[in-house]
Amino acid sequence: MRGIATMRGIDRRTALLGLLAVGITGCAAAPRGPQSSTPGPSEALHHTPHPTAHAAPLPPPPHYVPDPDAVAERFIGAVPTAWGMDLPGITTQLAASTDASLGPRIALTFDACGGRGGSDIDHKLIDGLRATRTPATLFLNARWIEANAALAAELAADPLFLLGNHGTRHVPLSVIGASAYGIPGTASVAEAVAEVWGNHVVLTELVGTPPTLFRAGTAHYDDVAVQIVHDLGETPVGFSVNGDGGATYSADVVRSEFGRVADRGIILAHMNQPQGSTAEGALPAVASLRVHGFHFMHVVEPVSEA
């Protein structure tokens, strides 16, 4: 596993140069509502396109330090049997709270997919979240970080936002090349490990601590890839509400989709397409949800609202 071994102990630029050679356009791979995806080379995979709630998996043991070489070796020859956005081990809702006084709790998550056409920033959205002190979990792709280094550092320093791993090349996570929305996924165990670990290195340098959350490009995984993410020390995160259809929905539809969220829900939307209507729909929806008693949290930890 020499290709994986080179990911350990390297700087951000080396990681990017080594793993960003394959370009995937913008957010073309983002979940877009009712579109179907194809399992790629294995039609035997069970496809689960519609998310339902799964309990958050147990965190890794204390002081666990992932070894990408060891993880890759462990899964050589593993054959996936399921494929989709809703598999055991993918977190699609917030963990239950023992404090009933908190009321309904939801998490806003925004993806930054990177690449050609996907490395912009929706300043109106970010500024609106800051103005209303609304916490959000931001899933950043390695290419987006490379294109927006100063802004990425600014977001990392803002406690309002929790940064998650959105992959190195923004592709579906598979060990056999399964595809979603016409985007081929990682084609081997080594590629799946590299897709997670390349940006793990980048985010660790950016934030100062390793990321604990991962969302694959297109939010699609096979069941072997899900376990690989866990063994690399991160939790695969899905969603319960597709808030902006890959930044393609109108403002009215975005507001309507955000309004469907239930207690402990995770909303997926995008922060890298300012030409879309995500901000115009999401910000009024956030205000309405707050009026109706919803509290906004990070995916893995609460943030106090001013």
Automatic annotation (TrEMBL):
Domain of life: Bacteria
Molecular function per GO: hydrolase activity, acting on carbon-nitrogen (but not peptide) bonds
InterPro entries in alphabetical order: Glyco_hydro/deAcase_b/a-brl, NODB_dom, Polysacc_deacetylase_ArnD
Protein name (database record): Peptidoglycan/xylan/chitin deacetylase (PgdA/CDA1 family)
Signal sequence, renumbered to the chain: none
Domain NodB homology stretches: 104-306
Cross-referenced PANTHER family: GLYCOSYL TRANSFERASE-RELATED (PTHR10587), SECRETED PROTEIN (PTHR10587:SF134)
A GO biological process held by the record: carbohydrate metabolic process
Renumbered residue ranges of the record's region Disordered: 31-66
